[in-house]
Amino acid sequence: MADQMQWSNALSTRPSLEAAISEVVEQAVGKLSTQANLGIAFISSAFTSEYSRFLPLLAEKLDVPVLIGCSGGGVVGTSSSGEAQELEDEPALSLTLAYLPEVNIHPFHVIAEELPDLDSSPNAWMDLIGVPQNSTPQFILLSSNIGSGINDLLKGLDFAYPDSVVIGGQASGGMGNRIALFCNNKLYTEGSVGIALTGNIALDTIVAQGCRPIGTPHQIGKCDRNIILEIDEQVPLILLRDLVASLSEEEKVLAQNSLFVGVAMSEFKQDLQQGDFLIRNILGVDPAAGAIAVGDYLRPGQSIQFHLRDAQTSAQDLEFLLDKYQQQQTDKSSPVGALLFSCLGRGEGLYGKPNFDSQLFQRYVKDIPLGGFFCNGEIGPVGDSTFVHGFTSVFAIARQNGE
């Protein structure tokens, strides 16, 4: 069994940091038959005042060559009975340990000032990260909202490593939103920490944006940066008002607060379906010009479709993607572990009950440990590019690379 990938997770809700660390280390180590070479830890913001103590205390109990992690407004883990749990607004610690044979694990920390210009060659990005392109790394990335230049970093990684997966989340905190990023024995509050995994590993991704399309796809005729000036040769606001008027009464109420724009990620796909769109906020409208402002830069010719979001839609969207994933797995190696990066706006606040996304995941992807946290922004691919999302649950599912 030593040459097979192994993965474990342990969760503690003990209010004492020392006790929580002892509990997760004992349980996570006990579930492996060999020594781990990777640790991923998520600590609840209930421990904000103790972030600086976390790594020294953990080092007393755990010897692992590479460890990354961060703080979260909530953490996700697997209970001793094997059930996934999402713990929000309470002391909690989630520790994932993995034994990854035939995998090189390269940790890194970068800040915005170190990022190459977006016109730079791929070599500049490879020098920054320290991993060659031909090794096709799988990235797990944890970032701060401060000093990370996260959007430029994602563009650079996509450019330099076009066949790689980049997945992760932005650290979140409690009062004052103080956050922590961990990389080996160091604590950071700015930039991004991550690992590049190369060799016999694949990270499958599920990016559940929690929306369903309404109406039909349209094409942007004119736009200025993030402002839509013309859709299908019509005034955008008039087209949108006509669309809302055609909705059911229930949908009309939903459209007042939960209306979004989906931007198609492929210029060539004709039959656009759920999951083919990058969901972005509507920032405002200009009644005089009939224009609509969106939370992303756009270009003429792009296809868009309006979307709605609520708890039921979010649940249906995740189930649709999990079912699709399950059907695609028949000819691939079995998953051994997973990470969940979920928005602070999901969880119990969205569904009215705890553990919804994680336990739905477990119904489709059975018997593997799950760890994760609640993010200020979720990082994952849509189409061929990687984005920071909102109100999204992003899953990274690890397996050996053999088909």
TrEMBL record:
One of its GO terms (cellular component) is plasma membrane. It is found in: Cell membrane. Residues 236-382 form the FIST C-domain domain. It comes from the Bacteria. Residues 35-235 form the FIST domain. It holds the Pfam family FIST_C. It is a multi-pass membrane protein. Keywords: Cell membrane, Membrane, Transmembrane, Transmembrane helix. InterPro entries: FIST_C (IPR019494), FIST_domain_N (IPR013702), UCP018953 (IPR016741). This is FIST C-domain domain-containing protein. The lineage of its organism: Bacteria, Bacillati, Cyanobacteriota, Cyanophyceae, Nostocales.
